[in-house]
TrEMBL record:
Record field: compositional bias (Acidic residues): 411-431
Residue stretches making up the Chalcone/stilbene synthase N-terminal domain: 73-223
UniProt-recorded name of the protein: Thiolase-like protein
Family indicated by similarity: Belongs to the thiolase-like superfamily. Chalcone/stilbene synthases family.
Signal peptide annotation: none
Residue ranges constituting the Chalcone/stilbene synthase C-terminal domain according to the UniProt record: 245-389
PANTHER family: HYDROXYMETHYLGLUTARYL-COA SYNTHASE, TYPE III POLYKETIDE SYNTHASE A
CDD domains: CHS_like (cd00831)
Species per Swiss-Prot/TrEMBL record: Triangularia verruculosa
Compositional bias per record (Basic and acidic residues), positions renumbered to this chain: 432-442
GO annotation terms (biological process): polyketide biosynthetic process
Region (Disordered), start-end ranges: 397-442
Family matches, as InterPro entries: Chalcone/stilbene_synt_C, Chalcone/stilbene_synt_N, Polyketide_synthase_type-III, Thiolase-like
């Protein structure tokens, strides 16, 4: 049976998005500072540091600098200490990202939020962090909450898929649904533990070169208004369909193992080839039987919001799908300027994709596309893929919403708690919309393609 791709066919709309990165950025030399401070030179350490200089990442967003107290103890921090910093520095990021998404979605009455679907792979306490975010936002105690764990980098789209099914359930019951979908990851606190593993086991562990900190959120809605006098705002994106797939027998290739010092990244050299192998069949399944608008005949006819798990993930996608870096312009931009923030990254990519700077660097200058494919990979290895329709004509006060600067919210970290280290070559990061972003957007493809193969 053919399925139309009209945006209201499922009645699922992303009404608002919000991203909040922490106020600090780490350049490639930040890792060298801690490595030299706590470990002697060794073949494995030197190899990892060499890879670290050529990931294609300019800055990795972080809750602190290399002189943060957590990573400057005699031993790597315990999982309890990591949790404490996740709560003190991470949860405020999640609150800020949520407020941005709620503001854009015009959720003026917080009681209209019916569900909350959250994810993280960098904390596991009970109650989960979502409980404290909901409490801070003033959500009703009857809000239905779901916290996903064990889904890693694919968590953002897994949470969106879960929220979509909840939305459809409410639609079947004739009830309105407004779901806050939230992802929060604080991974830079694991640096000492990873350095210890590199030193002790002489393993080439490149996760330490890629991961960063971020919170991001979206508000998903079904098409049932709360009242006739409160129309639903036009969507930023319409969610049209999704697919979930697991690559058999790949549990040992990509994961995040529990450890007394937090978690240990599992990342085998097979990952880029494995993820590339499943892209085309998942895309074909997603698009099968759909009546697409004219001009959408192959992957290159869409814009792509690909989770930037690493340089080889993106370049591998280009090869198998026959697309150019500009198709994934927001993915490269996010990767270069912030790194890989695990589950929180995909919403950040979707948020960045609809901004004016990204519309200026499309393939061949053809302009942005309405139809967008989102994709992320997680441990297992799992792939999450979705089909979205971007609302290019969304306006508010005569201006395209996607061209506006998102509202700024409070920062998550207090600079007084973080010292400074002369000569550390680690600089304060710029918040979204900060000075120099336009220039970054124009140069991101050139910088991204300077990266080397990590496998």
């Amino acid at each position: 049976m053919s399925v139309s791709t009209e945006p209201r066919e499922l009645g699922l709309s992303i009404l608002g998005l919000g991203t909040q990165y922490p106020p600090y950025s780490l350049d490639a030399r930040a890792l060298e500072v801690l490595s030299k401070r706590y470990h002697p030179e060794s073949p494995a350490m030197q190899k990892v540091l060499a890879i670290n200089r050529y990931t294609g990442i300019d800055k990795r967003s972080s809750i602190g600098r290399p002189d943060h107290w957590l990573v400057n103890q005699p031993e790597p921090p315990t999982i309890s200490q990591i949790h404490d910093v996740f709560m003190s520095d991470g949860v405020p990021l999640a609150i800020s990202a949520s407020k941005k998404a709620l503001a854009e979605a015009h959720v003026d009455d917080i009681s209209q939020i019916t569900h909350m679907v959250s994810t993280t792979c960098t904390d596991s306490a009970n109650p989960g962090y979502d409980h404290f975010v909901a409490k801070s936002l003033g959500l009703s105690t009857s809000v239905e909450k779901v916290l996903l764990h064990g889904v890693g980098c694919s968590g953002g789209l897994a949470a969106l898929r879960t929220a979509a099914n909840l939305c459809l359930g409410h639609s079947m019951r004739g009830l309105p649904a407004r779901i806050l979908v939230l992802a929060l990851e604080i991974s830079t606190t694991l640096v000492r533990s990873e350095l210890d593993s590199i030193h002790q086991d002489q393993e080439t562990r490149i996760g330490i070169c890629l991961f960063s900190d971020c919170a991001s959120a979206v508000v998903l809605s079904n098409d049932i208004p709360f009242s006739a006098t409160e129309p639903i705002p036009p969507p930023v994106y319409s969610l049209l369909d999704w697919r979930h797939q697991t690559i058999p027998d790949t549990e040992s290739d990509l994961g995040f193992d529990t450890h007394t010092q937090g978690w240990k990244v599992v990342l085998s050299p097979r990952v880029p080839n494995l993820t590339a192998s499943v892209l085309e069949p998942t895309y074909n399944s997603l698009l099968s039987g759909k009546l697409l608008p004219e001009g959408y005949d192959s992957p290159k006819d869409f814009d792509w919001a690909m989770h930037p798990g690493g340089a080889t993930i993106l370049t591998g996608a280009e090869k198998v799908l026959g697309i150019q870096p500009e198709h994934m312009r927001a993915s490269y931009d996010t990767y270069v300027n912030h790194g890989n923030s695990s589950s929180a990254t995909i919403f950040s990519v979707l948020n960045r994709l609809r901004e004016k700077e990204m519309d200026g660097v499309t393939p061949g200058g053809r302009g942005p596309k309405e139809m967008v494919v989102g994709c992320a990979f997680g441990p297992g290895i799992t792939v999450e893929m979705c089909l979205l329709k971007r609302n290019l004509s969304r306006t508010e006060g005569g201006a395209r919403k996607g061209m506006e600067t998102p509202p700024e919210m409070e920062s998550s970290s207090e600079e007084g708690e973080l010292g400074s280290e002369e000569g550390s070559d680690v600089v304060d990061g710029e918040q979204e919309g900060g000075k120099g972003k336009d220039k970054k957007a124009e140069e991101f493809i050139e910088k991204a393609l300077e990266s080397v193969e990590l496998d």
